[in-house]
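Researcher: For the annotation table, I need structure tokens for Glycosyl transferase, group 1. Please keep the output clean. Sequence:
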Amino acid sequence: MKICVDARMWGIKHTGIGRYVENLIDNLPGDVTLIVPPDLKNEPKLAKFTKHYAYFHPYSLLAQFEMLWILSFIRPDLLHVPHFTIPVLWPGKMVVTIHDLIKHLSKGRDTTTRHPLLYWPKYLGYLAIVWLAVHRASRIIVPVKYWKDILIRKYRLNPDKIAVTYEGVTPIYFQKPSSPIEIGSPTPFVIYTGNLYPHKNIPVLLSAIKLLKGKVSLVISCARSVFTSRAEDLIAKENLQKFVKFLGRASDADLLSLYQKSLAFVTPSLIEGFGLSGLEAMAAGAPVVAARASCLPEVYGDAAMFFDPHDPVDLADKIQALLIDKKLRQKLITAGRAQVAKYSWATMAAQTWQIYENKVHN
């Protein structure tokens, strides 16, 4: 059985998808052939794999022809594409991972930096390739039941076509930090990690910080973008500069330290693909305060404190409760560590390998 994995998005620089691909490949119980970008030629973690190099960005039109050429040479029995970026010209068997349909639910001018004349054609192209992906796939993998249900309703798919494989947590988050990071906050702080797209609901988090009147500050770890500038404008408008600190994108080691020093990890997001950052925070020993939205209740279970994502007063009350009630905070830490133990990259990879075997032999 010859399995090929499209690993063009391998690694943390591709955020959640990159982390998924990296941990999948780390934990697969059998051998696979990889398609990777040339900058991974000397990546030690991939040294044992047969690799073929793709030079064009996965979202580009030229990548379609490049992938057809590469796959014609590899001739795999099965291709796993861990995103909707399928090679539409390839006629072979494919397993496709659909991490979410966030762009279906959060769209329009506020969600992009592009001019409408560029945005809408690209958006229609996105809709088309996702439609092709879900119908061309021999099997679809999703990270939670929430997205399985949405795919079934939206595309009228047979439920048996879709498998749920929950993700896991990188081992570093279960360790003690080797080099604690200092942020210079004189007050207890909550931390948010991730991008600042509109569906992340950052204005509600900032409003909650304002309601706390300096008793708690906010640390945001994310790569800079135009959405960062929008958040900074709102922070200035609300006079919150003293209480909000941007750190840029942090390493796993730095995030581990930040989680362990924080009062709590807060995710106000209206839509999430999986909510991996919250599980990483739980593993590190941080309480999690999460929006009661999307897949977050499914993933976090009873181990998080949930709030109405449209109500900053509710969020401020939850943070205040953790500030004054040490027993409640410890209860959430204990529950979080029990919850995160339910998730494993090794289990996810084993389930994925079983899907490969079933599709190749059937």
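Researcher: And a one-line annotation?
Model: The mean pLDDT is 93.
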